Amino acid sequence: MAKTVVLAYSGGLDTSVALKWLQVEKGYEVIACSVDVGQQEDLTEVRARALATGAKIAEVVEVQEEFANEFIARAIRAGALYENRYPLVSSLSRPIISKHLVEVARRYGADAVAHGCTGKGNDQVRFEVAIRTLAPELEVLAPVREWGFAREDTIDYGLANGVQVNANRANPYSIDQNLWGRAIECGEMEDPWNSPPSDIYAYTVPHGSVPDSVVIGFNKGVPVSLDGEEMPLYLLITRLNAIAGSYGIGRIDMVENRRVGIKSREVYEAPAATVLLEAHRQLEDITLERELAHTKIELGLQWATLVYDGLWYSPLRMAFDAFMEEASSVVTGEVRVRFSPNGFVVDGRRSPLSLYDYELATYARADTFNHLDAEGFVKIFGLGLETWSKRQGRVQP
Amino acid sequence: MAKTVVLAYSGGLDTSVALKWLQVEKGYEVIACSVDVGQQEDLTEVRARALATGAKIAEVVEVQEEFANEFIARAIRAGALYENRYPLVSSLSRPIISKHLVEVARRYGADAVAHGCTGKGNDQVRFEVAIRTLAPELEVLAPVREWGFAREDTIDYGLANGVQVNANRANPYSIDQNLWGRAIECGEMEDPWNSPPSDIYAYTVPHGSVPDSVVIGFNKGVPVSLDGEEMPLYLLITRLNAIAGSYGIGRIDMVENRRVGIKSREVYEAPAATVLLEAHRQLEDITLERELAHTKIELGLQWATLVYDGLWYSPLRMAFDAFMEEASSVVTGEVRVRFSPNGFVVDGRRSPLSLYDYELATYARADTFNHLDAEGFVKIFGLGLETWSKRQGRVQP
Amino acid sequence: MAKTVVLAYSGGLDTSVALKWLQVEKGYEVIACSVDVGQQEDLTEVRARALATGAKIAEVVEVQEEFANEFIARAIRAGALYENRYPLVSSLSRPIISKHLVEVARRYGADAVAHGCTGKGNDQVRFEVAIRTLAPELEVLAPVREWGFAREDTIDYGLANGVQVNANRANPYSIDQNLWGRAIECGEMEDPWNSPPSDIYAYTVPHGSVPDSVVIGFNKGVPVSLDGEEMPLYLLITRLNAIAGSYGIGRIDMVENRRVGIKSREVYEAPAATVLLEAHRQLEDITLERELAHTKIELGLQWATLVYDGLWYSPLRMAFDAFMEEASSVVTGEVRVRFSPNGFVVDGRRSPLSLYDYELATYARADTFNHLDAEGFVKIFGLGLETWSKRQGRVQP
Amino acid sequence: MAKTVVLAYSGGLDTSVALKWLQVEKGYEVIACSVDVGQQEDLTEVRARALATGAKIAEVVEVQEEFANEFIARAIRAGALYENRYPLVSSLSRPIISKHLVEVARRYGADAVAHGCTGKGNDQVRFEVAIRTLAPELEVLAPVREWGFAREDTIDYGLANGVQVNANRANPYSIDQNLWGRAIECGEMEDPWNSPPSDIYAYTVPHGSVPDSVVIGFNKGVPVSLDGEEMPLYLLITRLNAIAGSYGIGRIDMVENRRVGIKSREVYEAPAATVLLEAHRQLEDITLERELAHTKIELGLQWATLVYDGLWYSPLRMAFDAFMEEASSVVTGEVRVRFSPNGFVVDGRRSPLSLYDYELATYARADTFNHLDAEGFVKIFGLGLETWSKRQGRVQP
């Protein structure tokens, strides 16, 4: 009796050929599973393609709301930017997709789970570590890594095996997109000196747009409203993607360090992510105490690396999130973002819990700060260095 | 016989009144010392004003080149942004000004050094810690902190004592500027919800501009050329301030955490700093090994906090710089910056020492990466979490 | 009408003289408050001395159990050792004493709180920051810092004002002790090259002792039993102080960095703390996943510095504790400690949640580890350095 | 024509069988290379055994002095303890052995390098990453990992192929030793609840001993003398191993986290390492400024993890060492260590560059510290928390 595998199915070339290959070369019955993380594709059509390619069952799972509330919200709270720049677009979707692959596998009593990642990227790490952690009893298959085809070979194998291949041999880009952003790689961008082609963008196509500013409301570190209108996070992100994207905001062009030891050139579009992370940080500026704020920046960097590396389901991520949740309990308030073509600024922030104290900060007569306390403070604060200078005399440039 | 004090003299209201106050109230002979860190003021005129206000001697010290090479260059190499955003405009100038105040004091055998800072800001800390570390034998005076006048009182004292006061009572802003940027505070900005007034900017006044892109060359982490033309760093910064400023690039609006325990709203203009720090980081992306790159980001944050807090002359800063110098030995190459109104992107970077390896990174047939090694890698990489899941079963969200 | 102050009263020279001084020099009515944190003194007698010295009211507050459960337990969970060595003996007692001083002040409607610390130590920082944070409306007085007496002057002032002074002018040591340990400073130890005198110890006086080993049980990172017998933490610590102290275990001789910029020689005795922190760490070794364990060590150091610096009541300490609590949810099990004169080892640890996996770790035939996966792992793990070597060729020593 | 491999040869069972196996199964000509890192074995005899087992060439390389000066000295300077406890005994020897394997391979024009490590330990990572980084052109072979024999199989293969096997089937321990310590694993210790057998120790066999104290001199963070007698570091370590070992000092019993995702029980003996690291730290206590000292502790932990993980030859280790070298420039002075059975204390430390300042630290009348400065210091230092308490009111336990 044939074993069953649940395949993460996107409808693209690689997973379509994988769907066939698992049947032909490995003798599996395949359950295709397509997870809607906001990639803006017609998953009904994707489902039909799966069945046409021989899937025994084709599941479509809608998780946009869960993705926003359980994954993106934590990333915002943590202020997560890998290498201080990448808002973890694909890194965040892999663990939730893995979770649902495992759920489908358990529902149908499947023996294995398969993904369509190659052997040189991060996503294989994210999928496999997540799946093995969630379900150590399931086998994990990686057909694309195993067959080792170049792109042309994949097309040829697909054509030879009756896969409906609508891949354009001339389209050289590899794309992954979801609610939180869009990643584009390959083609001429593989030379990091080349400018990205102007026609690759989809989330950030500038056109004159209104409104020119928006007020974002946060509750405990999570966005909850736009211009005073409360809405679910996934919807808020969708709207903000449209607004900020229309100004061309949120393009990121970088060479990043993959977990597997190689550098890769990546271009991202993440309009809502870019704006929300900056707005969140500005709200933290008025609500977090200094030492907490500084430590949170460092732990946020570590959080981002951990999740980038595929370690979402890990006790360290959970402990970091306990820190972040406690820290974020006061990050409630509003931030005003002002857009202009190609750029935006936060030019206002306020909170009922603000630690900004006009009476202390002002240089006007309202001033309540005791200037003379500062004299003692500065002397003691510098005392260790004064001793250092006297004793070791190594003061340099 | 009267004691002598060297006063850091800017020519503004506070230090002009201080110059008089130190004579009248404290009986000092005053040596005014004005240090040119690129603040674009006529220091000849400032010097004349000092003498007119009773300074026994008025020194003008030109340090732009030293400021760029010994202070700003280290900040670029460290990637220094306080709280991930502020490029340390005033923080960097205080230690070099302190150094020259001490030199002047020693040259003339003065007894004390004085600065014009209030008791609630960071600059008093920077000046006093630096001066006491460089010259524990000198007394440090802080007339503005000591007299405790509000702005109006200062003007009145000045008028009453024959100080040539050209302060505009209506101008509510406090400004500090140098080669590396410009800081504006006070006025209506003291409410962090208010947008900054549109007329406060000087370094970032947008007007249609050429060129629309520039290639910045770096050697060991320090900028050395623009579009292939080598030039001293202070000149390179001056030119880039003009170019990037003409696109309105480099405005920063934030609430920051001062060392003395209060939050303050600050608006900065730092066109060259903003562009150079991003370009430098992008060059690091292709030249620094992953673990080094990640650690350097964390130490760069600590470097920035240390210098922000006034601890430039300290053994920790020196040890950090030894780390940064060693790490930066390979950060040599070129970065292309493309400007548009209100924004810019780095869209190309290259280096003879680049660790980006096309053969490893590409998905085309040139690929030399062994995809199957990855299978073993991922299994071992996730082994600890697999055990965790089996034994502790605490996998969450 | 006289204002009222609550004085932290230990019964020693400084606070006895302070009790009088506050009445005589400042005109306060004084409420003496003695907090029992396990210092093993007769507080009934202390109370009587307070009343004899003019206290209007003398309160004795018993907090040993709260001290153990709310303060020491968190320190154990965090693995807190300041500068990797000092178990925070006095640092932990100051915040709980401050809390009860504030409670007493509020109960009696007092106007101020006073402590007996000098101006050069850490304890003034701990008391004042805690009190101002807990009760910004209360004034804080520091008579010992304010009067600036040397020890002899204090004795003279006391004698002259009818204070019952039983201080031995020849006893040069300053001592603070509680449940968690004992601190001894001053005298000939002020030269860090001198050995501590042999007669200064009280908690660690070696004498042949049974038992020679003990099994300590932990639940979620907190000690709960000795040799299988469950008991409250404060009692467990008391017993372990006796056992380990009888072997001479727990002496710490160090020069530490105070918050106020000076170095001081300190000798501590902390038998239970030394044993419990090591036992706890050993239990973590088998229950914490690697990345979590490593991060927790770094945050534990930061926790210790924060608390040492007097910042117990702070949002960063609370966020760290949320991290520690989540991380510690699996730190349950038993540790066997074996004593010998002057030393001890942990030579056994076990847990129902242990991540130690015999099948994976053994070199015997039971081995289930796939050795060949390791080949791929090592190649990918070192790939970045291989590229570094090829491209940058900077391999050194 | 046969290819040539350089085998790291210890003379033990595994590498003796590997020597034969590489000839028989792989057709290599084998050059045996035995590196003397202070393992106290007769390498002349080891060399003879290599030749008797078919080695074409057998090299013995004496590197004790280089090992001490270039590797151990850096570990001491960094204060390196993996997981705050393990002084990196084997971790430090692997990179120097790798370096000499590569040198021998290049001298003889060999094609490959081989080591005798299994697939589940750290040493395979350390050897292979080091060798590939030092010589990307050389193949790396891991016969023991490849053949996958259990211990009994190895013995049988050896006997069947004429290898002189003097392994005792009953001796269940795996041992690695060098100048810096000795590691013992396996046998009944594979259950972490079992006490180590009493007969496994060699470096720490207690017997009444003189002297009972020793003064260790350091220069820039590196030990240079014992009781005033200057000597090379490797000799100093050898002597101190004898002295401290005779008191039974330096036993470490722990469960550690290997790089390959498993936990293992390890017992170490490291008398000199234990004493020198503590003495070094105590000297740092009086010579390093506070902020530098605290940062150095954190970076030292990271240094230790990096080297434990096999990343000695890496740009991050080099940058860390630049930090450590700069920081250590003042760590010069003397430390007195006092031994007792099973334990030792540092009870004196002094330095011409000491930052300990009697005038500041003393409570006697010599006191020069201005106690009143402290009042202002404490107020400003706690100001942020006071504001936090007033505005957010979240003060807890």
Automatic annotation (TrEMBL), chains A, B, C, D:
Keywords in alphabetical order: Amino-acid biosynthesis, Arginine biosynthesis, ATP-binding, Cytoplasm, Ligase, Nucleotide-binding
All copies of domain Arginosuccinate synthase C-terminal, residue ranges: 173-385
GO-annotated biological processes: argininosuccinate metabolic process; L-arginine biosynthetic process; urea cycle
Subcellular location per the Swiss-Prot or TrEMBL entry: Cytoplasm
Catalytic activity: L-citrulline + L-aspartate + ATP = 2-(N(omega)-L-arginino)succinate + AMP + diphosphate + H(+)
Electron transport listed as a keyword: no
Database matches in InterPro entries: Arginosuc_syn_C (IPR048268), Arginosuc_syn_N (IPR048267), Arginosuc_synth (IPR001518), Arginosuc_synth_CS (IPR018223), Arginosuc_synth_type_1_subfam (IPR023434), AS_cat/multimer_dom_body (IPR024074), Rossmann-like_a/b/a_fold (IPR014729)
Gene3D superfamilies: Argininosuccinate synthetase, chain A, domain 2, HUPs, Single helix bin
Residues that hold L-citrulline according to the record: Y86, S91, N122, R126, S174, E256, Y268
Quaternary structure annotation from Swiss-Prot or TrEMBL: Homotetramer.
Family label: Belongs to the argininosuccinate synthase family. Type 1 subfamily.
Name this polypeptide is given: Argininosuccinate synthase
